[in-house]
Design a protein that fits this description.
Length: about 190
Amino acid sequence: MDCFKELSDEEIQVLASISTPKLLRKKEKLLEPGQPFNHLFILTSGLLRFFFDDENGVEINTFLPSEKEVAFLESPESYSPEGTKKYTIQAVIDSQIFLFNKGEFEQTAFQHKGIYNLYLKSLKQIISILSARTEQFCKSSPLSRYEDFLSSHPFVCQNANRKYIANFLGITPNSLSRITARDNKKKNQGKK
């Protein structure tokens, strides 16, 4: 991963010594509602989805990270005060992660400037992604959200179920089908 280029060989060795590799098969869950989860992790290959069930039992996808994005990830609830744990983290395709005990990782990060900076950069990237996503929902049409997502997340578009993508974009699968049909029709007319 490109993000590790900023680390010294010693810092990479330190991270390796405190990590646990884990392969998540397609649809396997890393975290389920109500489960304690005191870890953070690096997604080195694959695609995950973070979701919760709303009051009607409908899954709401809030994050679809691939290895192309953030270095360090954790449950969204790890930033909130104690309360009900409602999130699920699930592999969309076979995915490889490296798990870190959060306390041990943070202690290590305070001892190694490169690891600390990489963690801080990851947190800033997550905030930036969530900020951009919030702005999109406030000011962009479903078509615009889809076009932006298609251009900025081609790996996710190729590998995620269309139902997950539609839900992530805040539209129904039928609406996504109509949008893609119109988009394909427009592209085909432009070729003539």
